[in-house]
Write a structure and sequence with these properties.
1 helix; alpha+beta; 19% helix; 74 residues
Length: 74
């Protein structure tokens, strides 16, 4: 019998943390592709909470973050 369904593996989550820290550490972030039925979006979570955005919003969010980074005083 031939199976007509194809299964795939898809990476949808990444842990960003300091080397040597556990994945549940205080300094880590989890970046995840999420879909709650209305289409996929990105979610970034840390110990304090999470933010979500659509991929088409990223260039604007990235620009604002880069601007803020440049304005931080040493």
């Amino acid at each position: 019998m031939t199976d007509t369904h194809t299964m795939i593996q898809r990476p949808i989550s990444w842990c960003v943390s300091k080397e040597g820290e556990p994945i549940f550490g205080e300094t880590g972030y989890t970046v995840t592709i999420v879909d709650e039925g209305g289409g996929e979006f990105i979610q970034i979570e840390d110990k304090d909470g999470k933010i979500s955005f659509n991929p088409d919003e990223w260039p604007f969010i990235k620009k604002a973050i880069e601007t803020a980074i440049n304005e931080v005083k040493p």
